[in-house]
User: Fold these one by one.
Assistant:
Number 1:
Amino acid sequence: MARIHAAAFTQSRPWTEEEFAALLESPLIFASGDARSFALVRVIADEAELLTIATDPGSQRQGLARALMRYWQAQAQARGARTCFLEVAADNSPAIDLYHSEGFAPCGHRAGYYQRRNAAFVDAIVMQKELP
């Protein structure tokens, strides 16, 4: 996961192997995906949060992220989630388009949430979707 995350997140600091390992120790967190693409999700009570999703650049534009979006939501629902949340950088239009197409709608805003490698800060858009 750290390798894919580093390859996909070139504008901000990618997560380390240690960070992924620490997150995955929690029974509230699960991962979905394979060696090309993955999603990391936390379910608490009836809410799921997409912590991160990444696809290796060589495997992008093949529908992997879309398939993962649907899969992690089904897995979260099976764990009791009724509402899903995620945060996305306001300048990440491909991700925003994907999330909109999967039924997520903006519900909040976090000013200066993401720090870019050039020291600039980018706002986060918080998005939400109710599960059926």
Number 2:
Amino acid sequence: MKSTKAEIHPILKSYIPVAEGIAKTFGNFCEVVLHDVTDVSDSIVAIFNGHVTARQTGSPMTDLGLKTIKKGLEGNDLLTNYKSRAENGKEIKSSSMMIRDEDGELLGCLCINLDTSYLSVTHSFVQDLLKTEEEQAEQKESFSLSITDLEKKIIQEGTKKVGVPIQLMDKDQKVAFIQYLDDMGLFLIKGSVQNAARILNVSKFTIYNYLEKKD
């Protein structure tokens, strides 16, 4: 399914037939997604076999995608063969390839998500497909259907990380909470600073002060 956005960067647009070709080659168990990382709230500009993760054009960036953009790729534009799980419980094997413009700026990424449950019927073929690179095996990724759902998940993870309900957090715990949200890329989402301030019952300037305390 292609985006209805009025404007898609020409470089990203050139990848749409590539994405469609990959999806058609590998079949219904292979979802191929083209993301525009300049708008993480509405990042999917093209998706084929979207039933694998139940997403569609206009769905947001994943939590792993946000974290990757925030932390940077350290010279590596490939994230290959990592495990993830769709909202419907399907086990997914994923690879993501970054797309840059002429100046080397990150524009988007092409992601391939294989529903491995379909492959178990052919054991010899599946043995190779199910292999994951050891250093990527513990990656976790959630395929949120809306930006609100994505924000909620990251906030829930931050609360678990701090180990204290939001309403009981002291100042140091609030600082740790906000810094975790930043590390996860939450504040790349428009309006998320104001949302965090509302949740903690502080001003957005207080949020910025908490972020300045990072080492």
Number 3:
Amino acid sequence: MSKIWLSLAHMGGKEQDYVQQAFDTNWVVPLGPNVDGFEDDLSKWLSKHAEGEQHVVALSAGTAAIHLALVMLGVGRGDEVICQSLTFSASANPITYQGATPVFVDSEPDSWNMSPELLETAIKDRIRITGRCPKAIIVVYLYGNPPRMKEIFAIAKRYNIPVVEDSAEAMGSLYDGNHAGTMGTFGIMSFNGNKMITTSGGGALICHTKEDADRVKFFATQAREPYPYYQHKYIGYNYRLSNVSAGIGRGQMLVVDDHINHRRHIHRLYKELLADVPGVTVKEPIADAAVEPNYWLSCILVDPQQTGFTYSDLQQRLGEGNVESRPIWKPMHLQPVFQGAPSYVNGVSEQIFSQGLCLPSGPMVSDENIVYITDLIKRH
């Protein structure tokens, strides 16, 4: 059979119309009508499940969005920024762009996301060591699963630390009825080729005010001051999304809800078909809050003491069956590039990393594919 990929992009059919408009009008450079339209589409879509208006700035990548969030928060050399350890490196790398130091905080076992208990421990300890609070907290919605946001926001408020929601993997995930990325000081979106929707490559920063959004746009377009010649008071960046890519995004917005519903359906199938397999656990969301993950990727834990095989053995078996899978992110506090960074760990992320595997979940994955994949998993 043809290969079953982890999360392929899927075109809804209208993307080419918007892209063709860009070519017909010669708007193939960054900015243009598609960019404005895409930002408006996103803002209106988010505002259906959010408190207040949402102002979205389309950017070249989710990483750029995190970076500009830190720029907006005034993060600089000598500052510390708390970051979830169990995540992709793009969550942490922008901290170093600003000359700041990442402080990694481990996960709690239910959500796989930042442990509120360890978060407060880290804040108190950094105050004791440095004499001041960390400048920001970056909390991740790992694989689309909402963290314990209520507890995290309460701690952040207690110490007056802004929260950046890295919801790059969580477009469509809800926490207490609110879209991921709309509750913190800033929120992050990603439109990479494997995400909920794609612009080929791209991302966005979610702001609460037009003033913040305008300031983000200023920094994202090389921080050019309003003079008749090129004048710059601040370091700027070339981070805006192209009009062609935004055209793809406009078409994708017409099918985003279908993509979200499909991934939730895929997750339900995995849960149903793997329910009675000893040692294989399908990742479920936290049960003590009103959360609705988008299930960007459905993930499992493989306990080798019960199954007789490791996640690595299973990944090889799936690969031989023409199925792509992927290990869980390696925690940032274990990455060589961040050796020596302050870390507050409890062993949870390391255990998840040692047992976790991501399974095909994209819009191109069929029910028949899931039956085939789960049969491979059940094979001993």
Number 4:
Amino acid sequence: MRPTLNWLPADDPLPGTTDLEPVADALSTGGVLVLSGAGISTESGIPDYRGEGGSLSRHTPMTYQDFTADTQARRRYWARSHLGWRTFGRARPNAGHRAVAAFARHGLLTRVITQNVDGLHQGAGSEGVVELHGSLARVVCLSCGALSLRSELARRLEEANAGFEPTAAGINPDGDADLTDEQVEGFRVLPCTVCDGVLKPDVVFFGEAVPPRRVEHCRTLVREAASLLVLGSSLTVMSGLRFVRHAAQAGKPVLIVNRDPTRGDRHAVTRVALPLGTALTTLADRLGIPVDDGSTA
């Protein structure tokens, strides 16, 4: 069976700590592979799904099955996503993203795998980021496979839906704004400019498989790393948890920085329960690594 973004029940949590020493030791040794989740982007104004105030209590993410089978579902998605993009696309990297980039520049990291679709690691200067779930900055045609920029589609949608200015109840980690069915009624969805096919953001929806080659690439990165550092992920979906399990089975130390308990706690040597920005900048200071102040991000 191909892996999909399925929710999993929680394991017994690992008690959280504020002791950053094990993480500092791992970073100073080098060879650290980072796996990041939505929690690292909350300080950039992008909400988490499952943390404090997480959006799952009020928002059901679009599934691949609904998107591909139902024209009304696609209208609802694109109306919400178009509005959300106005906020999502303006988000800027925070201190946590900048600290990760600084660790990489100083040779402490092997690579960054992110479950996020916001591009903020790259915006902070991280190179070679593996986007496990894709990127909202790209759009793919489900018929011909053509890739295009989300910014270009946003421009076309603005022109096709002049006057579309509803007030959203909130923005979600997938860039989807909370709107009612009445608010999205009449929104015009646009086709591919190459073949008139159905357009979809180049992200892995819930119920959709992560591409197998991408999964295997990440498994290789885990095998080559000395340790795995999880940042801001609840690890509640198998797409990220599998790499934690793989690392633990291979005898690689797993370290987690996440305020709340995670699905991977049982495999970790520690879980630091601190905000990501605070934890990562403190680690950088402890290791003598300067972090950009964000003025050029």
